Amino acid sequence: MTSAPAIELRSFTELDVARGDLLDVYAEVRAPLLHLANYSISSFGERLDRHGSEAGFLAVLAYEDGHPVGYAYGNEIEDGDRYWQRTDPAPSEEYTGRPAVALKEIGVRPGWRGTGVARRIHDAFLADRTEPYVTLMVNEAAGDGKVHALYRSWGYEDIGHSQPSPASPRLTVMIRSTRG
User: Fold this and answer.
1) Is 133:156 a contact under the CB 8 Å cutoff?
2) Contacts of 11 (CB under 8 A, 6+ apart)
3) Taking burial as the number of CB atoms within 10 A of a residue's CB, which of 15, 49, 102, 143 is the most buried?
4) DSSP secondary structure string for all residues of the chain
5) CB 1 within 8 A of CB 111
């Protein structure tokens, strides 16, 4: 698939409605990594449940012919949040002085990559956010560096590193304005 598919974007503020589709897409997106503890479906499900219960949760899923093909989800974070506590160096007050939105996960099934679906999901996720900044974490090795480069092309800048759990790889923390 090389052209932009006809997709429908759906937004969810309640996890229970979207949880099954999120797990379904995640399993295919992360299939090569599912044997690693941090990437297992059960680990993802635990993180998803925690994030889904936090303030400002939003998930955006892309569907083609009723079939989920991609997703993004995240929630609001504030100064003192574990997200910022694990970021090294500590982010400046410019970013933590007001709530920000953390894009916790974004993924698109392999057959829909390179079609603009990820960017459409990302932009829909940010469309109605009121926080001034959006932050995300990326494994610089993902896609042989292509994912990190993609986020830079979307206006994100590196501000530090984080290792969210002992099983997690060291991730690069990136940030940009929500109005990018």
Assistant:
1) no
2) 58, 59, 60, 124
3) 102
4) --SPP--EEEEESSHHHHHHHHHHHHHHHTGGGTTSGGGSHHHHHHHHHHHHTSTT-EEEEEEETTEEEEEEEEEEE-TT-HHHHT-BSPPPHHHHSS-EEEEEEEEE-GGGTTTTHHHHHHHHHHTT--SSEEEEEE-TTGGGGHHHHHHHHTT-EEEEEE--STTSPPEEEEEEETT-
5) yes
* Encoded tokens for 165: 């759990």
- Which neighbouring-strand residues pair with 58? 74
Only one residue has tokens 């993902």, namely 142
Res 49: pLDDT: 97
CA distance 161 to 164: 10
- Rounded to whole angstroms, how far apart are CA atoms 147 and 153? 10
Cα 134 to chain centroid distance, Å, stands at 10
pLDDT of residue 3: 55
Phi then psi for residue 56, to 5 deg, are 70, 20
pLDDT tens track of the chain, all 180 residues?
Answer: 455 558 999 999 999 999 999 999 999 999 888 898 888 999 999 999 999 999 999 999 999 999 999 999 999 999 999 999 999 999 999 999 999 999 999 999 999 998 999 999 999 999 999 999 999 999 887 777 889 999 999 999 999 999 888 878 889 999 999 986
